[in-house]
Amino acid sequence: MLPPEIEAFLLCPTPQSWIEQAVQQQDVLLIDHANCEKKAASTALNLMFRYIERPDLQHKLSRLAREELRHFEQVAAIMKKRGIAYRPVSASLYAGRLRAHVRTSEPGKLIDTLIVGAFIEARSCERFYRLAPHLDEVLAKFYRSLLKSESRHYQDYLAMAERYAGTSIAERVEFFAELEREAILTPDSELRFHSGAAA
Fold it and tell me: What is the pLDDT of residues 146-162, one digit of tens each?
């Protein structure tokens, strides 16, 4: 079940056209999913290096990075069993569309980066949920198993943003929610795990 707070957090569901395209291109979907897990771990590690003076951030992101790398290993194992060769695929435009609006001065930069992280994790969770009914039993079970961790990651990112802001982040969350909705509803020519509607 998709956590109701995630459904409320995201301003739109994944378009049906994207789901249909993803089901038809599961090899590309899995390759890009593997890439996304590595990127998520890399983002967490980069934040750990950038904000070494925040021990609670270090602790949470260290755990998150390990979990994301474990997910990468699981996706890679599924790909191997299915004979899907790991090959380069271009990144989706989704994260860039959000990160282009991250403030450049602190503490705004950290807060916005954490909010963007929350949206990426929330959308991942929502996509696992929407895809699962359309997949074979093995992949559907795996994607459902990821719902809990992705939901926790979303909560962790949002809680850290609230903590370091020291004030309400509602306005920034609303700002990025609109950008995220636009990114998801904008047609993309290539399928990626976080790409927009099918062109």
Answer: 988 888 999 999 999 99
Length of the chain: 199
CA angle 73, 79, 81 (to 5 degrees): 105
d(Cα 113, Cα 18) in Å, to the nearest integer?
26
> How do residues 23-76 score in pLDDT, each as one tens digit?
999 999 999 999 999 999 999 999 999 999 999 999 999 999 999 999 999 999
In this structure, is the dihedral angle defined by the CA atoms of residues 34, 123, 4 and 129, taken in order, positive or negative?
A: negative
